[in-house]
Amino acid sequence: MTDQQTPDHFANMDPRTAALMKAALAAPKTHAVISTYADGSQRRYDTRNAASAENHAVGERRKIGRDLISRETGGIVRVVSVEIVPIA
Questions:
Q1: Buried b (16+ CB within 10 A) or exposed e, 34-70
Q2: What is the structure's pLDDT at 7?
Q3: Would the N or C end of the chain have less CB density within 10 A of its end CB?
Q4: Could you report the per-residue pLDDT of 26-73, keeping only the tens digit for each?
Q5: How far is C-alpha 84 from the chain's CA centre?
């Protein structure tokens, strides 16, 4: 497949389902979950609504105070706070 050819992931799908999924994917991101680490770095996860942000934040809050391995550096990091903020 070349760069000019893009697969249509919705081609073999029921048209109503495809339309629903396309609309969901096109919806704007309205909230972000920001996790802050002890070294001052932050990680941001954008969501489409406040409920999705809260759901993601629940899992992130479980990590507060734990030593984790950073995906970016491979070093040990500690989550110190998690907050939900609206995207302007």
A1: bbebeeeeebebebeeeebbeebbeebeeeeeeeeee
A2: 62
A3: C
A4: 889 999 999 999 999 999 999 999 999 999 999 999 999 999 998 888
A5: 12
| Rounded Cα gap, residues 84 and 9, in angstroms | 32
Is 31 in contact with 49 (CB distance < 8 Å)? Answer: yes
The pTM assigned to this predicted structure is 0.74
Residue 31 burial class via C-beta count within 10 angstroms: exposed 0-12, middle 13-18, buried 19 and up = buried
Asked if 81 and 61 touch (Cβ cutoff 8 Å), the reply is: no
Residue 71: what are its φ and ψ, rounded to 5°? Answer: -70, -30
| Strand ranges (E), the chain | 31-37, 42-47, 67-69, 76-86
